[in-house]
């Protein structure tokens, strides 16, 4: 295996297409990698991560200007290790040709489905999980026998540069290529004739990517964003719900696609929820400013956007509670304390746009049906969280709402289960990775009829007066 040169692709029009052509050519030389070859590639990815783990953690910390190594380990690296292990364990079973029931009309033939690699998968990565969201889809693509090209996020440049170095050291340019760059590179990348594109990012850019891919009829998996609601039932202890939600909302300072975006709380419990949530956050993060456990906001621009949204909510009459336990001054930093917005209304930006940061609006409701109706009236979210002990009501909420995934009495942890598909619905995305569904997503299920020596067509072909044919109709 010859290591690939570390090229910084700054001239995309001269570098991207040849890199893809090279991968496509390489794929066609070996279009059907065995289980052993796939496992070996996954194993190499594992080795690469072990070798680069510390430097990757440090790069993410630099990109965020403050994110703890424990958090990066927990929410980025460990899930990739798990995913690699899971894919290695199951891919033999998934690859097996599946025999199907042959209709009587095809008497003498056998029918089967082959799961064939698609070819070269293009993977576009956002900044919030700059390692996991590149390498987790990669593990799925490799398990299904594909090659890949990854476009990292321009807002996590240190991580992007290191991912490029790592992949170039452990894989040849005939296997995986990493490209760094901004919107220009991304635009050109997504216009390339990949065999499949996995895009993780905003709903708005997802639509642009889908249109670009449509020109080549390239299928897309879109892992998008949205406003993931939490509904708390009156019967569920509000302090317990607040504690469980605080754990999830605090991760990466709310910069997570499945972060609880807003909370629907029984009208009489708004204040008790806000108080319990504030207390739970303050317990996790007693100080914020110099505390790496509490992640910074990725850029000044994102921080300004969040501050504008808080300002907009205040101007429109909301009561905003700032959770700043040590009473610190955050000017000149990229830290932003958690904000709880009481009295949020639908005309506020915090209720119109995905929040993607440490702001939590609380919406009061009177009847559970009203809360369900609110969710139904809005775009289909990536996740929905419901807190209740009653099985019938839980079932009702699951059946009457649409979302990519659901957690009951918990937030976000469904993303940690490799054995379940992960993906959105409607404006939160399409397609899946993780689980067997991920393998199928990156494979072509090819239907094959194999005819034997016996030719039954004489009985089912013209002249149509043929007796046997008439017996079928
Ligand atoms: P983004 O859409 O701005 O960018 C994502 C990627 O798309 C980047 O690599 C960027 O370079 C590229 N890009 C930007 N403009 C493009 C264009 N015109 N054509 C092609 N590619 C383009 O998203 P972001 O700000 O990096 O990430 C935040 C968003 O990602 C949030 O909406 C969040 O919910 C979503 N997200 C979703 C998931 C999920 O699994 N569903 C996970 C993480 C983040």
Q: Can you walk me through this structure?
A:
- One of its GO terms (biological process) is aldehyde metabolic process.
- This is Aldehyde dehydrogenase.
- Keywords: NAD, Oxidoreductase.
- Residues 19-448 form the Aldehyde dehydrogenase domain.
- One of its GO terms (molecular function) is aldehyde dehydrogenase (NAD+) activity.
- The protein has 473 residues and is of the alpha/beta class.
- It has helices at 12-29, 35-64, 69-95, 132-143, 157-170, 183-190, 203-215, 238-250, 270-284, 300-315, 349-352, 368-376, 391-400, 435-441, 457-460, 467-472, and strands at residues 98-100, 109-117, 120-124, 147-151, 176-179, 196-200, 220-223, 229-232, 262-266, 319-323, 338-342, 359-365, 383-387, 405-408, 429-430, 443-451.
- Strands 10-11-12-9-8-13-14 form a seven-stranded mixed β-sheet, sandwiched between helices. It has a six-stranded mixed β-sheet with strand order 5-4-3-6-7-15, with helices on both faces.
- Helix 3 crosses helix 14.
- The longest helix is centred in the first third of the chain and has 30 residues, at 35-64.
- Nicotinamide-adenine-dinucleotide (NAD) binds at residues 124-129, 133, 151, 153-154, 182-183, 186-187, 190, 200-202, 205, 208-209, 223-225, 257, 354, 356, 382, 424, 429.
């Amino acid at each position: 295996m010859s290591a690939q040169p570390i090229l910084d692709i700054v001239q995309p029009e001269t570098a991207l297409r040849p890199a893809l052509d090279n991968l496509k050519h390489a794929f066609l030389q070996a279009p059907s990698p065995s289980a052993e070859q796939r496992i070996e590639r996954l194993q190499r990815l594992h080795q690469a991560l072990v070798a680069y783990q510390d430097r990757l953690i440090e790069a993410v910390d630099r990109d965020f200007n403050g994110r703890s190594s424990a958090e990066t380990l927990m929410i980025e690296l460990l899930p990739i290790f798990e995913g690699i292990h899971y894919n290695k364990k199951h891919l033999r079973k998934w690859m097996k040709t599946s025999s199907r029931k042959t209709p009587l009309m095809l008497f003498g033939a056998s029918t089967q489905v082959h799961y064939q690699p698609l070819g070269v998968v293009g993977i576009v990565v956002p900044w919030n999980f700059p390692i996991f969201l590149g390498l987790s889809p990669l593990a799925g693509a490799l398990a299904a026998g594909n090659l890949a090209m990854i476009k990292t996020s321009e807002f996590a440049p240190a991580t992007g540069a290191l991912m490029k170095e790592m992949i170039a050291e452990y894989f040849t340019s005939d296997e995986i290529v990493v490209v760094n760059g901004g919107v220009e590179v991304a635009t050109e990348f997504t216009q390339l004739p990949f065999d499949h594109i996995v895009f993780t990012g905003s709903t708005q850019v997802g639509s642009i990517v889908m249109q670009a891919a449509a020109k080549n009829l390239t299928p897309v998996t879109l892992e998008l964003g949205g406003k993931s609601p939490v509904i708390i039932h009156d019967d569920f202890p509000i302090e317990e719900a607040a504690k469980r939600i605080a754990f999830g909302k605090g991760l990466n300072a709310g910069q997570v696609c499945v972060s609880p975006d807003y909370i629907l709380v029984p009208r009489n419990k708004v204040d008790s929820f806000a108080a319990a949530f504030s207390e739970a956050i303050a317990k996790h993060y007693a100080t914020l400013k110099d505390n790496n456990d509490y992640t910074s906001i990725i850029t000044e621009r994102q921080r300004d956007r969040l501050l504008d949204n808080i300002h907009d909510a205040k101007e429109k009459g909301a009561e905003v509670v700032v959770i700043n336990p040590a009473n610190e001054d955050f000017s000149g930093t990229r830290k932003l304390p958690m904000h709880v917005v009481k009295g949020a209304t639908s005309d506020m930006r915090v209720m119109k746009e995905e929040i993607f940061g440490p702001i939590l609006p609380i919406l009061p409701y009177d009847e559970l049906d009203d809360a369900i109706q609110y969710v139904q009236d809005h775009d289909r979210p990536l996740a929905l969280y419901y807190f209740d002990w009653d099985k019938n009501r839980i079932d009702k909420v699951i059946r009457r709402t649409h979302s990519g995934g659901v957690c009951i009495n918990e937030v976000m942890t469904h993303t940690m289960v490799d054995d379940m598909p992960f993906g959105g619905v409607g404006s939160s995305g399409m397609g899946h990775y993780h689980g067997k569904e991920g393998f199928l997503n990156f494979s072509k299920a090819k239907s094959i009829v194999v005819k034997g020596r016996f030719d039954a067509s004489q009985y089912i072909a013209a002249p149509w007066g043929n007796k046997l044919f008439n017996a079928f109709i």
